[in-house]
Fold this sequence. Notes:
Layout: E1 12-17, H1 22-30, H2 35-43, E2 45-50, H3 57-66, H4 70-73, E3 79-82, E4 85-88, H5 99-105, E5 110-113, E6 126-129, H6 145-152, H7 171-192, E7 196-201, H8 203-210, H9 215-236, E8 240-244, E9 248-251, E10 256-258, H10 259-265, E11 271-273, H11 302-312, H12 317-326, H13 330-334, H14 339-345, E12 347-349, E13 356-357, E14 365-368, H15 384-396, E15 407-412, E16 428-432, E17 438-440, E18 448-449, E19 455-458, E20 460-466, E21 479-480, H16 484-491, E22 496-497, E23 513-514, H17 530-538
Parallel strand pairs: 1-7, 1-8, 2-21, 5-6, 5-7, 10-17, 22-23
Antiparallel strand pairs: 2-20, 3-4, 8-20, 9-19, 10-18, 11-12, 13-14, 14-16, 15-16
Helix pairs in contact: 7-9, 8-9, 11-14
Amino acid sequence: MAGSTDNKDLRLLVVGLDAGCRPVLESLFESGELPTLEGLFDRGTAGPLESQIPPWTASAWPSLYTGKNPGKHGVYDFLSFDGYEWDVVNATHVRARPVWELLSDHGLSSVVVNVPVTHPARAFDGALIPGLTAPENPDCHPDGILEDVKLACGGEYWIYPQSGPAPDRSIEGYERTIELRGNAFRYLTRRIAPDFGFLQFQQTDSVFHERHGDKRAIEAVYREVDRQLAATIERTDPENVLVVSDHGMGKVTGDEFRVNEFLRERGYVSARRGGDGMPDWSKSWENDLLEGAEAGEHTTGLLERAMNLAASVGLTTQRVASALDRVGLKEPIGKRVPNDAIRAASEQVDFPESSAYVRSKSELGVRINLAGREPNGQVPPEEYEVVREELIETLSAVRTPDGTRMFDAVEPREHYFDGPHVDEAPDIVTVPRAFDTAIDATLGTAQFGEPMEPWNHKRTGVVAAAGPAFDESAALEGATIFDIAPTICSLFDVPIDAAMDGTPLPVIDKTAERPYPAYDPEPITATDDETVENRLSDLGYL
């Protein structure tokens, strides 16, 4: 491992704040909660960082660390689709070169900790401990490094707070998880002495999904991030620091639109009961309410009828689970509710028999069941464009119950994506109005209703740059997440991949561009780990 005895300085530290944004940070700055982060913003230059469509973690971080849109790197969502089945994405689904591998090709070493969609780790000059979508005890680089990290962290390291000893979703669990990120990163930088470091904090996002608007929890998460950042800067003494986020976060005050229910009314979606409308592998994690050793078999009866009644009035299992969790009843009830009960009691999209549907709410789009592409395609290829235009027109006209438009845009996928993997995108992209409305893929409830999550992603994140390599007088305006990888290349005077979609931030002089050889990623492998599925379900993504 190059650099293990080298005392060279850390030239650039990138700090990733998942869902970091000015509206959240400003109140914490004003109260003096974040002296380290506030100091970086005040000392350097800062501005908004526009995310992509869709502005969700699993697709946005690969866009940030490759500098390329999903049409080039191939990841649109937490899920990857194969016909009517799906799988959770991992690093093998990312079909573009991460910036640390590009740096490695130019003799520069890196330490990367907790960045999403980086498992399984590929070889490069440095070390990588993956983040979200990785299983616990993941494959890291180099082999065996995780055990050393655990020893350096007091014998423990986990990716998800739920895997630690603190209570599920507790503030203490969040704080310890964040502390482990900092400890791991500092240990690896001491061991490797890298040129480049990338340290990501996920709890700045998950606290909003798991503890909606809980001011005490949000403040605790950000305070611990600030403490770990202070300790990291003190220990590693980076020459330059770049703070980035993948998207923003805020309240959703508009309506939730159940797109599949809307499509069913217009004849596009067929439904079925009994669980057969869901992919096989999803059935084990569909709802945490149903976990437990005794939750395996059931007999149709009162329970199923009760669940059916609940579903008919909008009491989805996630809402029920959330309510039970708040009053401390989720775990005992979960061990008594059989897994098959909710699937038998609720309606699901019958994907093979439908002509168009939403498969995943976080990919923000409608898929057409195209003959010749899907196993049981219903729409002939010669009718594809006609059907797509009809759907675009129909969805563009949707108004919420108060008469405002539901979407800012409804466009064919080519409007947002370009590259060799555009065909893997949803056929139609739907952009909620200012992300103050939301879409959902469930059936069996009214077409409009209260959002499942009162806090959710916004498109505008944040970026801040501090250090002698940056022109701190330059204004950061119009920056996008595609600009971060070219900025990193320019700081290290490494030629920018001409296929990148961004340009360096105006705080640094642009280095030369050149084409690079085709990226040769590993074969795509399945994410066969129930922990990952459960955690994504906890966060409301699945």
